[in-house]
Amino acid sequence: MNAAIEAEGLGKTFTVAEGPLLRRRRRRVGAVGGVSFDVAPGEIVGYLGPNGAGKSTTMKMLTGILAPSAGRLRVHGLEPAAQRTALARRIGVVFGQRTTLWWDLPLRDSLALTRHLYRVPRADHRRRLAELTEVLELSEFLATPVRQLSLGQRMRGDLAAALLHDPRLLVLDEPTIGLDVVSKSAIRDFLLRLNAERGTTILLTTHDLGDVERLCRRVMVIDSGRLAFDGDLAGLHAAAPLPRTLVVDLERAGAPIEVDGARTAAVEGPRQWLELHGNPANVVAEVTARHRVADITLQEPDIEEVVRRIYAGA
Ligand SMILES: Nc1ncnc2c1ncn2[C@@H]1O[C@H](COP(=O)(O)OP(=O)(O)OP(=O)(O)O)[C@@H](O)[C@H]1O
User: Fold this and answer.
1) Which residues contact 186 (CB under 8 A, 6 or more apart)?
2) How far is the CA of 57 from the centre of ligand 1 (A)?
3) ipTM of this complex
4) How far is CA 35 from the centre of its chain?
5) Ligand 1 atom 17: the closest Cα is on which residue?
6) Tens of pLDDT along 254-277?
7) Residue 212 alpha carbon to ligand 1 centre in Å
8) Residue 313's pLDDT is what?
9) Does ligand 1 have an atom closer than 6 angstroms to the CB of 54?
């Protein structure tokens, strides 16, 4: 079967002007420095890296917004920048920080307009819209202007708009950014279902390890424009073991907590940070049994830390 994405030595440099107006100098900035990877149809791949690593630039090349300065790129056999219109029928794109919906129109009207954008036959559009309305639970706010939607509702609307033409590849840039726990979970469940039922290939960038753990069987880590890791989640954990942290607020400051399955990494007044190695539920039970606790929260490690550790290990 043909690959959904083929990238070979893919690179992008920008030329930026610098200095005072009359003595402007041009400087070349490398954003992506020659990355190679293939994505097979039906994969869900996380594309991770710290801020400025080159993720958005790669996404823009994949969707044809930017032309590569080096290498070869094919998306479903098409050259994105040169064949943007043909590509648009095969891919859906959602940028979490922006919306493609019309701000002043009810969601329903925005979704109706996308039919014309992608020239979807009326009957197909009606059927897809009914399906997406059901699985994304859109019916209660279809009549609401987009500007009045909550972030989670808007994201569900954006996903519907990106999927109405039934693309084979879905490209997502930070799909759960800013969402509450319930909305995040709904979006993740939806994406898993889309992948399982329709075989849609999904490539996503995220700073949220929860997205990665729930969704991605494969992760690619990019840093300073280069691929630092390409493998499964177990491999990522092996390359960068990441203990989660339990933040415990005691009612009163005390000695460092000692329990099985955790190591106290820091103490600041009544607050203590415990690096978890064992089962979180057991550790929480033991801490609350032995201490008077005001509050407890579980902190996930962040992606920047994953990348830092991969480099330290390499
Ligand atoms: N249009 C542009 N002109 C000049 N430099 C750019 C341009 N777009 C991106 N860059 C530079 O390219 C590098 C990679 O940027 P990119 O936006 O791809 O990173 P990112 O991994 O998406 O970061 P973030 O997680 O913050 O979105 C950065 O150094 C950035 O400043």
Assistant:
1) 137, 152, 156
2) 6
3) 0.94
4) 19
5) 56
6) 999 999 999 999 999 999 999 998
7) 22
8) 59
9) yes
